[in-house]
């Protein structure tokens, strides 16, 4: 009984600490969301420990739509956050399959080179990438965002992740399909990718979040007001609208798509984490 009581106390203490830690982590988001429904006077006068709006108002969201072409920015961000991850997944999965299943000289060296790019801070390559985009006359075009996400260090982790997941898929499945007359492309689309749904879901969530939250690079290469993403548009909101309650309204709305994407893919995402596609050769 003494040992059982100690175990119960230990578990209870652990859960209390985890709940307290979780509340401390999500409280800033809850405060920001609730504060977006406050008036400006209430936002500055209330204690940060009292996030409940009184009275509840939607004026900040109305003002947000008046100051910014919010719908246009959202459409641009949604388009880029869906199209770019799809291209990133295509490039990463094909590359990972080649590095996993095809035998060719220098394969391991090439893989190490991909991984090495992850160790270089993105700010180091910022100026060279910008110069390349300008020389290619791709400045102020969406294609600049596509290329830098698909063929730079941004996609290196996706290649690594897919490669490790593909290693966990038995080769016998492929060999059987090849014996039955299936081509390499057919094996990839009919065997590998259907068995890699957790990896695809995980990569889709992480890539969507990365593209949606991107700020510095889109701000540098996109100068056309009609092509701005939501994160860059919120920068202009801060310059044009001094009311922090309106800014919090825009920030709160910008988080909604990420939550929706996670809720859609959460089952596959959790499956990927639990089954960890980090198998051996």
Description:
With 281 residues, this protein is mainly α. It has a single domain (68-275), classed as MetI-like fold (Orthogonal Bundle). Helix content is 75%, strand content 0%. It has 14 helices and no strands. Helix 3 crosses helix 14 (244-275), helix 4 (70-101) packs parallel to helix 7 (142-150) and helix 11 (197-213) runs antiparallel to helix 14 (244-275). The protein is globular. The N and C termini lie far apart (47 Å).
SSE blueprint and pairings:
Blueprint: H1 2-35, H2 40-45, H3 59-67, H4 70-101, H5 107-117, H6 126-135, H7 142-150, H8 156-167, H9 171-179, H10 184-195, H11 197-213, H12 216-221, H13 230-240, H14 244-275
Helix pairs in contact: 1-14, 3-14, 4-7, 4-8, 4-11, 5-8, 9-10, 11-14, 13-14
What distinguishing features does this structure have?
281 residues, globular, MetI-like fold, mainly alpha, single chain, 14 helices
Overall 3D shape: globular
Proportion of residues in extended strands: under 5%
- Going by CATH, the homologous superfamily would be MetI-like
Task: Compute the number of structural domains.
Answer: 1
Structural class: mainly alpha
**What integer value in Å does the Rg equal?**
24 Å
């Amino acid at each position: 009984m003494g040992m059982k009581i100690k175990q119960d106390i230990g578990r209870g203490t652990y859960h209390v600490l985890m709940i307290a830690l979780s509340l401390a982590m999500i409280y800033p988001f809850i405060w920001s969301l609730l504060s977006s429904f406050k008036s400006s006077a209430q936002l500055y006068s209330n204690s940060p420990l009292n996030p409940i709006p009184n009275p509840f108002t939607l004026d900040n969201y109305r003002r947000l739509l008046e100051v910014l072409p919010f719908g246009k920015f959202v459409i641009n961000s949604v388009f880029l956050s869906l199209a770019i991850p799809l291209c990133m997944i295509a490039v990463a999965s094909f590359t990972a399959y080649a590095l996993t299943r095809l035998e060719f000289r220098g394969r391991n060296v090439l893989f190490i080179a991909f991984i090495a790019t992850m160790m270089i801070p993105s700010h180091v390559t910022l100026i060279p990438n910008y110069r390349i985009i300008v020389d290619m006359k791709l400045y102020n075009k969406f294609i600049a965002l596509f290329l830098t996400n698909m063929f730079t260090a941004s996609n290196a982790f996706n290649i690594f992740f897919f490669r490790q997941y593909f290693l966990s898929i038995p080769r016998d499945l492929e060999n059987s399909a090849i014996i039955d007359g299936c081509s390499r492309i057919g094996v990839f689309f009919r065997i590998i990718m259907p068995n890699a749904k957790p990896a695809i879901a995980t990569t889709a969530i992480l890539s969507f979040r990365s593209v949606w939250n991107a700020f510095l690079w889109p701000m540098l290469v996109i100068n056309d007001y009609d092509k701005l993403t939501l994160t860059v548009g919120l920068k202009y909101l801060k310059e044009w609208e001094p009311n922090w309650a309106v800014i919090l309204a825009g920030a709160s709305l910008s988080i909604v798509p990420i939550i929706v994407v996670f809720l859609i893919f959460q089952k596959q995402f959790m499956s990927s984490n639990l089954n960890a596609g980090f198998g051996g050769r």
